[in-house]
Structures are given as structure tokens and as C-alpha cells.
User: Fold Glutamate synthase subunit beta from Streptomyces griseoincarnatus.
Amino acid sequence: MADPKGFLTTPRREWPRRPVEERVRDWDEVYVPRGLLPIISEQADRCMDCGVPFCHEACPLGNLIPEWNDLVSREDWRAAAERLHATNNFPEFTGRLCPAPCEAGCVLAINQPGVTIKNVECAIADKAWEEGFAAPAPPDRLSGRTVAVIGSGPTGLAAAQQLTRAGHTVAVYERDDRVGGLMRYGIPAFKMEKHHLERRVEQMRAEGTRFRTSTTVGQDVDAAELRSRYDAVVIATGATAWRELPVPGRDLAGIHQAMEYLPLANRVCEGDLERSPLSAEGRHVVIVGGGDTGADCLGTAVRERAASVTQLDIYRKPDSERDEESEPWPTYPKLYRLSAAHEEAGALVTAPAAEADARLFAASTLRFEGDGEGRVRGLHLVEVDAERRPVPGTERTLPADLVLLALGFSGPDQGDGIIAQLGLELEPRGTIARGPDFATNVPGVFAAGDAARGQSLIVWAIAEGRAVAASVDRCLTGGTSRLPAPIGPYDRPMTV
Assistant:
């Protein structure tokens, strides 16, 4: 503990964002470049080095947070990077994309703002790359065993890297033309620039992991045939079956799923397209769904210069402080949070009908209205109470010629053929069934990540990838593995 009084003398300071007027004109990350380094050592000093650190319990990876906080406060970046990478393959991803349940579980957060754990993590990861502390770690020798990983999101990449480093020959199959899954085409560049992803992929290639892009298992390659070619198969395809909104007018043109809209904007950033076919430019946009994907759509539409953008959230506006009765520490509370996209929308007044930051809370979609030619022109909504019952007399209409549905995902896409070709059993909710060792009902086939867990956070996805790798390694080596298994398939976030 570098400064025993740090949490008493140093206020919380977060990574500063660039001015709204500047950042909405580009697709670069919203944060001030190198803005962390001047403040991060003092922020790490705020860690109390708790005897029982609940940040460990809140983080499924089991990150050694007090240890690397202390090392950062002493500016021992090499040791901090070693401790960070001991539990997390991709800390620059989680440092940018994870909502940080560890900070909600920080003991300091009982009565004051918690430690900026996420920012410290990101600073360590970036420093590791800058100083050459993230060199490839190929295995000393090969096992002669082969593994196919289907899906290159955070779960698939984590599993592949762990198994490659254990000496197995791993091939990752990805249906898109580039590696990364939703991190590549679902997450906007202003949240995480893609060079962070690229250098990890190159690191993995240097270690020996092989990548097969533009290959849809179940269509281009039969899943059962793939199983016969490898000693083990890991299914990490994610939960890509999006939820629908079955209301009148849903078939009108101009209503799209968020994951139809966001990948096109990302392809513009990649240079594949000059302009997105679904660009929000000059259009009145309504986003149905109050989660992170909806916020990603919001920030994207703002950058595409939409005429207006409004986001609908069916839940009531959360409080700004934790409700100790319903969401006591150290659980992750549902609070009113202002993401970078909401900050931008509020400053630019993109939604005149909203109270402040483009969101309409406690709002439910009743139906869509067309223009007589089959295109959407309006969205009828109603306010709802805490039980989602319509409040009489609150109906109104928003102009809408582009509607984006960001309602989450229900499970893996069953249309790609993998589940049927392998004969996999499913849970009642549509996810892939598995046992305590991540194994499915098909020998040699394992399932991990959102495809089996259901829609979750990136930190859980990476933890699943590391854990399933340990199970596969035990299977291939006859019952022993030196790979860590941070979670089991039935573990869940802390709740009341």
C-alpha cells in the first residue's frame, strides 16, 4: 500500500474526454490521448489494499487489482503488466469496454467514489504495449493435439490464446472477413479503436494460433465434419439471435436491427464502404432499447449527422445513488450513468422531446406509422409504470424515418447449421446446454461465452474463454491442466 491515506486525500478523477464538438467530427476514441498518465499513479494510490478485496469477487476474471494498483502507484509498469496479464488476456479491451463491476465492489465505494480500477487497467495495458511488455509467448513444445475454435469474439480469442500457449495447435474460424466478432463490427471505433484488436491478433499469430476468416461453420464447412478433423471443438459464436419487437408496422422499410446498422458504420471506418447504406445523415432516428448497444447506435448516429436522435428505455430513470435496500454493496447497481454518447447527444440537443441526454425513460413502443409508400415515418409510444403498464393519456408520436432496434439477444443463431449438424442439446431459453466442465452432449465439443451463458459482459466472455480452455486442456492431456479456470459454467454475477 503505497499511500495509506491516499483514499482520504485524493479525490476520484477519471480519464478526461475530448470536447464534444471535436470528437463528434471523427471516429477516434473519445478520450484525451495520453490523458491517463498524468493522473493514474495518484488514482492507484486510492486503493486501500483491503484484507478482503471485494473487487476480486465482483470481477469474474479474479484480477489481482490491489496488487497492480500498488505497482502502478510505484510506477513499476513491468511488474504491473505481469500481474494484470496473469488473469486477463486482453486488458486493453476490458479497460475500454467493460462497465467495471469491480468498481461497484470496491470497498471504498461503500461511502465514497470507488477506485478508478478500469482506468488503471487500461493504463497498464497501453503502457505494456508501449514498453514492449506484451511480447508473444509461444509454447516451448507442441502437444500434437488440435483444437478448432468457432468464433473470434473475446471468448473465442481468449480460449484460443490459452490453448495455443499450452502447446495445442489451434485454428479459429470466423464467418466475417476480419477477426474480432462484435468487437470488430459491433463496437464503434470511438469506444475502442481497432488497432488495439489488430495487435492482439498479430500477437496470437506470432504465438502460433491460426485464423480462418470468411468461413461460416455450418455452411461453408460442415460442423460435424469439422469435429472429425480436430481433437476438440470450442463453440464460441456468441448470442447473435437478436430480439424482435412484434408491434404493428414492424414490416415498414427503415426499421432495422442495431446489428444491421452498426457493422455498416464500422465498415465505413475500415475503408470498405464510402458511405453506409443505412446512414443516419439527415434522418430522424429513434433507437428502441436503453442498453449499451442503444448507446452505441446513438453515438454512431450523432457522428453521421442525424437530424435528430432519440433513445427509448422501457425502464424508469434510475437514481444517481445506490439503493442500499434493493441493490446493496457490493452488487452492481443500476444507476443513472452518462456515457460518452449520451453526453454528446445532450450537449448537441439531438432529441428535443427528451429531458436531457436523448433518452426517454419509461417509454414503450405501441406501433409504427408509415408514409403510404411502405416507409416508416413515425413511432407511437406510451409512458409505462414500474410494472410496464401503459399510463392512460400519455400517448405521443415521434418523427422517425430510421428506427433501430437494440433489444438484446436471446442466444446463438440456430440458422447457421452448427447446432443441428452436431446434434447439440439446448437449454429452454435457447442457449447451448453444457455440463460443469463446459462440455456439451457431443463428445469433444465444448461451449463457452454468450452462446451458452446468454448475453453477458466482455469480462465474463474472457473469463469463459479462459475457463473452457482449461477444460479442453484437461480433456486433451488426460485429466490435468496448468491453465487457470476463473469461473465455472454456472457461476453468475453477485446479486441480492
The longest strand covers residues 363-370. The radius of gyration is 23 Å.
